[in-house]
Specification:
The chain is an alpha/beta fold. The protein contains eight helices and 24 strands. A hairpin with a 4-residue loop joins strand 23 and strand 24.
Length: 491
């Protein structure tokens, strides 16, 4: 309290003697002015110009206008306005106190933070806005707060996460604590929050919000527990969420979402880096200590890498990261970053997996061989399908009804068939006796008789001599000529 109140507070209270230029109903001690619980409805008009700490808490000051101070208070560095029912603050209210470092507006009735509300406070370090009714936060409300270290926005009605407070470029450069607990946040930008440095996530308070349960939220909190971040370790019971499938059910602990009965979320691996032979990688040392006294790395072989130099392929950068060049298989393993600070020491582990091939090397040939193998297997399958699944030509036709034999003297006889025209099993006609002196009628075609002719006796006698080969039935004179005839086919 000495830094906030100064050294003369106790002496003034012990003597009870009113200080010079001290307003009515206030207690003054050196450069400290306390008007707390004085039933004030406005700021006292006669404020000493040398006032460094002004306590106006627990009063009835509902509006803070631009002219609340009689003049410029160049020495004021702490202003306390908590528990006043304050509902309005002018955007020019802090123009007279440019060196303010501590501002307490907590436990009031503020509903919105207007544009550039605090832009006249470039030296502000601590801003307390908790326990108000704030539901709207302008994106430029905290512009020009380059030295802001702690921002308390808990116990309000904020439904939109103010991501601009955390992005590089728009985030106050010195911000190390952001309290958004007990608001109305239903979702969080888990990926963006996970990318923040550990020293900022260490004191990013999000408990007490009606968050919806999902696996990215579980992984964000689980990683915080793995790193033993204060915002997670100190408020594990208050970090709860609402299951989407059971809106009427009581909120469940976020760290229980990995169970099978809930969402069965898998916990993401922490600090695992994959690389290939010949690559150059940088291992980050994401410590909770923002201002470290000392830092060094220990390789898997036990070698120590300090800021002064490396061991050839490893070198430590100015930001504490370890750079590895031209990776070899033996470079894989667990690396340890050891950080020492004023309050505690911390050791971080980063696992490096080095694949035993280059990014554009042998594994491309492996992919080609795999594709060739798949093509060969597919070809074999297609051949088997063709052999065994095509329609059969023999066995499937065994059960078919045989076609009726062609009628004798029919024109439907096949000109290519080598089978006899009579039906199977029909006895051949009896041979006719040969008549002596009988000669074949002239005009035959290739041994065939013309229509109206009778079979010669010589053919009958020849049939007796030649056996079954001569038992073929003679074609009808009106039938189609044999395909072996020397003359054209005549119907």
């Amino acid at each position: 309290m000495e830094g906030l109140w100064g050294t003369g507070w106790g002496a003034a209270l012990s003597t009870g003697t009113p200080a010079l230029h001290c307003p009515t109903r206030c207690v003054c001690a050196s450069n400290i002015l306390s008007c707390s619980q004085a039933a004030l409805s406005s700021v006292p008009a006669a404020l000493p110009r040398f006032t460094a700490v002004l306590d106006l808490s627990h009063n009835n000051i509902s509006r803070l206008r631009a002219d609340w101070a009689p003049g410029r208070l160049a020495h004021l560095h702490a202003l306390l306005l908590a528990h006043n029912g304050l509902a309005f603050v002018s955007t020019e209210a802090f123009a007279h106190v440019p060196h303010l470092r501590h501002l307490d507006l907590s436990s009031n009735r503020l509903r919105a933070l207007e544009e550039n509300l605090f832009s006249d406070l470039p030296e502000l370090e601590v801003l307390l806005l908790y326990n108000n009714e704030i539901s709207a936060v302008d994106r430029s409300a905290f512009d020009n707060l380059g030295r802001l270290r702690k921002l308390y926005l808990g116990r309000n009605h904020i439904a939109r996460f103010p991501l601009e407070l955390l992005h590089d470029g728009s985030r106050p450069a010195q911000l190390s604590l952001l309290d958004l607990s007990s608001n109305r946040l239903r979702s969080l930008p888990a990926a963006e929050l996970q990318a923040l440095p550990a020293w900022l996530r260490d004191r990013l308070y999000l408990h007490g919000n009606p968050l919806g349960c999902d696996c990215p939220l579980f992984q964000l909190v689980a990683r915080g527990r793995h790193r033993r971040l204060s915002a997670v370790m100190d408020f594990q019971e208050e970090l709860r969420c609402q299951l989407p499938a059971a809106p009427g059910r009581a909120p469940v602990a976020i760290l229980e979402l990995g169970s099978r009965e809930l969402l069965n979320c898998s916990e993401a691996r922490e600090a695992v880096l994959e690389a290939y032979l010949g690559d150059s990688v940088t291992l980050g040392c994401d410590s909770r200590l923002r201002a470290a006294h000392g830092r060094h790395w220990v390789t898997p072989e036990g070698d120590k890498v300090t800021e002064e130099g490396g061991n050839g392929s490893a070198a430590m950068l100015a930001n504490g990261s370890l750079q590895l060049r031209a990776l070899r298989p033996e470079d894989g393993g667990m690396y340890a970053c050891r950080v020492s600070g004023p309050a505690f020491n911390e050791t971080l582990y980063v696992e490096l997996l080095v694949h035993n091939f280059t990014l554009h090397g042998p594994h491309d040939g492996l992919n080609t061989a795999y594709t060739t193998l798949v093509g060969c297997i597919l070809s074999v399958v297609l051949v088997l399908i063709y052999l065994y699944l095509t329609p059969c030509r023999c066995c499937c036709r065994a059960a078919e009804k045989p076609a009726a034999p062609p009628r004798d003297d029919s024109l439907n006889s096949s000109v290519l068939s080598a089978t006899p025209n009579h039906a199977v099993g029909e006895p051949p006609p009896p041979p006719r006796p040969r008549i002596a002196g009988h000669h074949a009628a002239p005009g035959g075609q290739n041994g065939r008789y013309k229509a109206g002719g009778s079979p010669p006796m010589a053919a009958a006698v020849g049939a007796l001599r030649e056996g079954p080969l001569a038992q073929r039935k003679v074609s009808d004179p009106d039938s189609v000529s044999s395909v072996f005839s020397d003359t054209p086919i005549v119907v």
